[in-house]
Amino acid sequence: MKRYLIVWFIGLPILLVLMPAALVTLFSPLSDGGTDVAAVAPHTPSSNRPKIEVKVYRTNKKTVETVPLETYVEGVVAAEMPAEFEIEALKAQAMAARTYIVRRLSEKAFGDVPEGAHVLDTVKHQAYLDEQQRRELWKEQFDWKNGRIRQAVQATAGVVLTYQGEPIDATFFSTSNGFTENAGEYFEKPVPYLKSVASPWDIQSPSYEKTQVMTVADLEQKLGVRIAQEAASGGSWYRIVERTTGNRVGKISIGGKEFSGREFRERLGLNSSAFTMELQDGKVYITTKGYGHGVGMSQWGANGMAKAGKNAEQIVKYFYQGISLEDCGSVLKS
Fold first, then answer.
1. Which residue, 181, 178, 174, is CA-closest to 206?
2. How many structural domains does the chain have?
3. pLDDT tens digits along 217-258
4. What residues does 325 pair with on adjacent strands?
5. Do 156 and 56 sit in the same domain of this protein?
6. Global confidence as pTM
7. Among residues 12, 287, 308, 324, which one has the fewest Cβ atoms lying within 10 Å of its Cβ?
8. How far is CA 203 from CA 171, 206, 208, 209, 240, in A?
């Protein structure tokens, strides 16, 4: 018996370390180690690629700035992902960011921005930092951080993610609860390439688990419900009606009303729709797992995959199922 116990205590830590890598190997479209993006993407030589410019609405200045596509992508990656992340994760982020704006340019979907602009510089679209902002933010660390961002963008220059020849809706977020989410279960519109996949690496994120506290009165006001009586009686004061494929709250019943997990999260300002709740001394303790909507590429998951030896192409093909990599010049409509 002691021999088996020794084997168990030695083997369990090894299993926990190897499991994430095994999941990638099992589910990744390129489980043989793959090659670099530059070697597999059907690049158009930069001299033949059409000149693409992005008109960014600078929210603070209330002006529109026109910048080359790759300069814009650098600004987005710098704003959306820590420069300290693995270079392959930064490359994956660069492709997602480039795909997002190329999709907008292709569809000419500019009705939600001031006239003359293509995109906002906020998280409503994609956060964006120009070079001066990066210098002010990073100070003495500017050179090495900006160098990593530029390396990732240049290594994937022109590459976008497509599904059936069209740029995808390359949604991304910070941290999952261990799984990404089916698009149809959060945004209520199924998307074939935005399917739930395991993302066990996210446990390393500082945002993986957080507890937020509010008074019962505050919760009632934000939801437009009354739960004080149920709370005082010690009875069941809420019920999870439905869970999603990604193990988030799909529907919740509270105070005689039913909310979707997304609506509940947004009304209360929660990090995630994966949550549990407890009542103590007139306060509600809500513990969330993950940060963000959960659909598409998990940034901490991408970084974990990169640490496990996967390259950028493998990362994006894992989080966006069934996609292809193409040059933006071949998919951008005139």
1. 174
2. 2
3. 999 999 999 986 666 566 689 999 999 999 999 999 999 999
4. 161
5. yes
6. 0.86
7. 12
8. 20, 8, 6, 8, 24
